[in-house]
Write a sequence for this structure.
């Protein structure tokens, strides 16, 4: 289906679709970039189905709290600018972040805001479009050289691939598609199981014909 084909791009664009909630899906490890800016989303939720997500844009929504981001261990860039976040708990942010944008939120006016965020995110390179000085990269922390994964991160952050565009019912359609495929797999498994039982029954009848009759 078109929804499943969309996953092949690794990048999903759902901006300006009047989406009010992030639906719950099965695991989608193929997706690394998700654009959900300029919608009506009020809560960060159900993103654990994107375990390999690296780029997430939720700018221009109605989000009032940073939460439910800890499962995103691969997240490198997070854009939450121009939401309604009053207070920020830095412990809710993934430690893997390199770039974070919270401009346009009242939480940026908290006392010690920048110091608090930078202190909680050791690998942060940019906060609210301003560079972070003294950030420790993972390879420096481990005493090694830059890996191919880090090079991929740089490409992802500096020049994300052009995303595919989907309608606002994408999550609903995708969930339905995945459910249908799951049901099809179960149906196929049941058919194979029944076929095997039929084969065993035929084999039993065959052996009964070959065996001598029981003595009286």
């Amino acid at each position: 289906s078109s929804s499943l084909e969309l996953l092949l791009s690794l990048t999903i664009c759902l901006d300006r679709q009047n989406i009010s909630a992030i639906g719950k899906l099965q695991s989608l490890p193929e997706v690394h970039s998700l654009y959900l800016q300029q919608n009506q989303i009020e809560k960060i939720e159900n993103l654990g189905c994107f375990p390999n997500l690296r780029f997430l844009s939720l700018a221009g929504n109605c989000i009032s709290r940073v939460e439910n981001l800890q499962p995103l261990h691969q997240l490198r860039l997070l854009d939450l600018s121009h939401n309604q976040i009053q207070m920020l708990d830095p412990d809710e942010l993934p430690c893997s972040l390199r770039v974070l944008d919270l401009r346009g939120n009242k939480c940026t006016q908290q006392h010690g805001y920048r110091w608090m965020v930078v202190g909680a995110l050791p690998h942060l390179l940019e906060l609210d479009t301003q560079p972070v000085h003294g950030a420790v990269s993972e390879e420096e922390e481990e005493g090694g050289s830059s890996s191919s994964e880090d090079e991929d991160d740089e490409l992802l952050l500096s020049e994300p691939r052009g995303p595919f565009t989907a309608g606002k019912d994408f999550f609903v359609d995708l969930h339905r598609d995945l459910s249908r495929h799951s049901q099809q797999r179960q149906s196929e498994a049941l058919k194979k199981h029944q076929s095997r039982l039929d084969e065993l029954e035929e084999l039993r009848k065959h052996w009964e014909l070959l065996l001598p009759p029981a003595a009286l």
Summary: The chain has one domain: 2-166. Residues 170-210 form the longest helix (41 residues). The helical segments are 2-6, 113-120, 138-142, 148-158, 170-210.
